Here is the input.
Amino acid sequence: MNNFFTANISDADPLISAAIDDEVRRQADGLELIASENFVSEAVLQAMGTAFTNKYAEGYPGKRYYGGCEFADVVEQAAIDRAKQIFGCEHANVQPHSGAQANMAVLLTALEHGDQILGMNLSHGGHLTHGHPLNFSGINYKVADYGVDKESEQIDYDELQRIAEESRPKLLICGASAYPRTIDFARIGEIARSVGAKIMADIAHIAGLVAVGLHPSPIPHCEFVTTTTHKTLRGPRGGLSMCKEEFAKDLDRSVFPGVQGGPLVHVIAAKAVAFGEALQPGFKTYQQQVLANAKALAQTLADGGLRIVSGGTDNHLMLVDVYMDGKGITGKAAEKALDEVHITVNKNTIPFDTQKPFVASGVRLGTPALTTRGMKEADMKIVGEMIASIIREPESEEVRAKVRKDVAELTAKFPMYPNRYKSGQTEAISAS
Ligand code: DSN
Here is the structure.
């Protein structure tokens, strides 16, 4: 047999093999609190690492530009059917390589170059693709933006109505990357209709909650709904665009050939597996625990003296003001100090932040990944106390040493990917 088809990665490419092992070990031995990250199942990982990566399948099931697509059709059709079942949408396109491309395809479908859009300001929790000047959305369209109220730090729907009336957008974009509160899609739908706008809801962060009815669904109120598949939805890294049937043909044309060429069939296979998991009853139990854990973590951090933006959380994430007008440390310093004790978070601006985005006054924390490992409210209390102690005394070697030890003890209780890594081993098992 030709060695090309048989050699294990550890023999074929020791550098990359070791980096993969190191990454498995980093994920297993640390506390992952980045709100947009999660851990996929072994089944999803297996679906991704398959020979479907070899296959070109431009087009859609039953209408491809290449031969040999019969099995690609099976996985893409399964992914489409399962996505429709999860979200109750009329049409789903599972090909977007990422959330940004899922959004780009919608903008290409709904707008002409130069049209007016209205999206949530990035610094108030929105996303680059909702109209940031450096993104395609801000470059190709005229942008107005809305944000949160200074006092409540929650979306000001009356102000959104006013801005919509003033800017008369063709597309109103809602959804957020750093917004800890329930989004009132019904109200946003009314606002959009009152000014004749279509709506795109980007539910990348909350898709898993929407899937099981723990966050109101935007589907009845919006022409277009997009998501990534790798956050609360717990699938592979990728995107998904959904729409009403009347836009189906145009949306499909916008994804391919509009913004992409060949789909990543191995990733679509993994999306199908993850969507199948999301249809199991256990997925709702998981999402309920994500919410309970977020509440427990936010409460512990508040008890530890930190300010929780908007006073709490309704979803999987929280924004923590660690700077507190100079009484604490910057988001950048907090991210670094936590990294050093194997707690992974990202710095994040808070609404009306006085710090630059690369410094920021806050950190954004989320519970999807730790909940996947099996952690519950009592564990969140331990995690919250660790975080608060580091932020209170970021330079203390004593505190760092204690937290490092506590992190090691806690993570050892919740092993992950046992076929790829055994907790406590100094050497990871090769991710073959
Ligand atoms: N970068 C993602 C996040 O962290 O929320 C959004 O695209």
In short: Residues 423-432 have pLDDT under 50 and may be disordered. The chain has two domains: 47-278, 281-413. The chain has 16 helices and 15 strands.
